[in-house]
Amino acid sequence: MSLYRTELRRLAKRRFSRWMTVLGLLVLATVMIGVFFSNQKIDASALAKAERQAEQQYQEQVRWSEQERLACERAKTDGTVDPNRFPADCSVITPPPREAIESRWFLPSTFDFRENFGFTLLPFAAILALVGFVVGASFVGAEWSTGGMMNLLLWRPKRLTVLLAKLSALLTGVLAVALPAAVLWFGGFWLVAVYRGSTEKVTSGVWQSFALTGLRGIVLALLMATVGFALASLGRHTAMALGGAIAVMVVGQFGLAILLDMAGVRFAEAWLLPTYAVAWMQKKVTLEDWEACNATFTGECRPATFDVTWQQSSVLLGVGLVVILGAALWAMRRRDIS
Amino acid sequence: MPAVLEIEGLRKTYKSRRRGTRNALDGFDMRVEAGQVHGFLGPNGSGKTTTLRTLLGLIRPNGGRMALLGHEVPAALPTVAGQVGAIVESPQFFPHFSARDTLSLLAGAGDVPATRIDEVLELVGLRDRAGERVKTYSLGMKQRLAVASALLKNPKLLILDEPANGLDPGGIREMRTLMRNLAESGMTVVLSSHILGEIQLICDSVTIISLGRRVAFGPVEQVLAQHSSGAVRVRLEAVTDLPVATEALTGAEIRVTGHPDHLMLTGVDKPATVTRLLAERGLYVSELAPVAVDLESVFLELTATAPVPGQHRQVDQSATVGGAGQPGATGGGWGA
Ligand SMILES: Nc1ncnc2c1ncn2[C@@H]1O[C@H](COP(=O)(O)OP(=O)(O)O)[C@@H](O)[C@H]1O
Ligand SMILES: [Mg+2]
Fold first, then answer.
1. Measured distance CA(B107)–CA(B96) in Å, rounded
2. Ordered structural domains, chain B, with CATH
3. B30 vs A42, which has greater pLDDT?
4. How would DSSP label each residue in A68-99?
5. Choice from B50, B303, B314 to test ligand 1 binding pocket (greatest atom count within 8 A of CB)
6. Any residues with Cβ below 6 Å from ligand 1, and which?
7. Closest CA–CA distance from residue A26 to any residue of chain B (Å)
8. Is some CB atom of chain A closer than 8 A to the CB atom of B15?
9. What is the longest distance spanned by two Cα atoms in chain B?
10. How far apart are CA B174 and CA B109, in angstroms?
11. What gap in Å lies between CA A243 and CA B97, rounded to an integer?
12. Which DSSP string do the residues of B33-85 spell out, in sequence order?
């Protein structure tokens, strides 16, 4: 217990964890402020204005098609028809129907809580996960590389206890930041919806779904923090985890994506990790293969689809976590510390 | 006296794919009794740090047994760790924390009361700089902090690996006084070093290691006595009397080497014999000095690391006494 409390104290004292947390929260705040200013509330005058703009556009189309038709007829009589410019029959040049120009297009963007909030949880989880990974890696990586771990083991010669106490402290720290951040995120976007959009039709079911998504986001952040921690502990250096992550992303993911693409593998994204992270957050990611066209009765082309579900993601993430953390604990038990 | 630290037949082999295997410890033995200041001597790369690391559970031995404060380690390490303060190799700390924070975190992890932090900072002379980041410390200051961290638990056994590293002469002297005081208060101190003058000044007993094996051990005087050849230098009031003196002494089965102004005698058990023999002939001694052997020459002799003109000794060129035979068993045991 004293070990766990001490490790919490160490985590809070580390400037790197403080600054990364502040940076992460600033990015989140920036996203929220950006959404606030790029959305507007739709009132009667905004609707009327959009209506006017649609009408205006329609009138322009009418004028323009009229001009074109006249030009076409004039060219016909002059005998200088450019077949690329005008059709054979000038009367097919007509304006689009009035309904084709919707006033909806001219509305400013607005933040509908029910429609839009769910998407904001993705960057929320991504930023928390990134901060968790980096802080987790540095927390134990710097301990290894500066000899702090050795000092600590001279004090408490129980290797697994020491490592797990550090991990618990880290996860507590991540939770301590993520939970209030989530509350602020929900509250903040509710305010954005109140002032710059609408909070209509947000039923308790919708709330529940958002809450569960937020929870999955926090679990993702905890998982990434653990993975960063375990990698840095395995490599005994912060840079090992960061370098490993970059290597996985660049070589493993971009490289793999290019290779899979060249090889013409179907549903190439199914081999890429971010797909699973997104599936974990959004419950399902539907991959589409436009090469395989399943013709429908209407003659429309429907791509073949492949669903990645959050259950599949949870199995993958769980197995990954067990393997990496297991390796870190095993190495901690076995290896010579010098 | 009970042994505070016991090592028997300790072996540690480092395997590397390119360089094959290296026996860093090759059947090493060591014994430290309670209340002593014990010097652990050996040239660079002889296995001192490896021994201490193994003892403290940082690395796994390939064989042998060890005990600390009467408990077998590494099994009982969690029980005894609270009574063993140690620094291993050069001190390393998280560079962005202050000395006080560093000690406070260690104290927290080991359930040591916070008041102890100021006590140890005072002891090692870091009181006024304790609030500064370790990054800004000199090597000597880091060394002091390391000693402070080892003292924090008020241990029964204090193990320091090369504590004089990086200390200024004043610091070395303070450290010496500190160790003596600690030993007087009942703490057992084990001190690894290659600085021999240091060890000779403060240690009660020593263990000398070379190439992973013990080559000598016992109380300092005993180790010295084993290697002092009983040499005595004699001067007379009149140089002209030297031949007479030579004759008298040779008659008493003392080996004598003549020099222009003095005689060197070997094989003397009591200098008083010399005085008596010469006085019987009416010769008066103006100087009678046993030639002191210091630990350094014993060390150089035992580990065969004395410099040879025209040769550059490489780090692993040292010797184990008696070749592959039993060190210590020869020469009647070094005071076991
Ligand atoms: N991690 C390691 N891997 C391989 N060889 C090592 C390792 N640590 C120490 N050694 C070797 O073991 C021998 C003893 O080293 P050490 O105990 O550090 O000597 P010292 O007496 O100077 O403290 C040296 O030859 C050293 O090169
Ligand atoms: Mg050493």
1. 18
2. 3-226+304-334 (3.40.50.300), 232-290 (3.30.70)
3. B30
4. HHHHHHHHHHHT---TTTS-SSGGG--PPPGG
5. B50
6. A 338; B 14, 22, 24, 42, 44-50
7. 24
8. no
9. 76
10. 29
11. 25
12. ETT-EEEEE--TTSSHHHHHHHHTTSS--SEEEEEETTEEETTTHHHHGGGEE
In chain A the beta strands, taken as DSSP E runs, fall at 111-112, 197-198, 284-295, 301-309
Give me the pLDDT at residue B319, please.
57
Is residue B190 within 8 Å of B159, Cβ to Cβ?
A: yes
Say yes or no for a CB contact (<8 Å) between A2 and B109: yes
Is the pLDDT higher at A6 or at A96? A6
What pLDDT shows up at residue B292?
67
Q: Which ligand is nearest to the CA of B162?
A: 2
Query: Which residue type sits at B137?
Result: Y
Q: What residue ranges do the domains of chain A occupy?
A: 2-41+111-334, 44-106
The pair of structure tokens assigned to A2 is 């004293």
What pLDDT, in 10s, does the model give residues B269-307? 777 888 888 888 888 888 887 776 667 777 777 777 666
CA A224 to chain centre: 14
User: ipTM score here?
Assistant: 0.79
Segment A49-91, tens digit of pLDDT: 888 888 888 888 889 888 888 888 888 787 776 777 777 777 7
pLDDT, tens digit, 9 for 90 and up, residues B236-272: 888 888 888 888 888 887 888 888 888 888 777 777 8
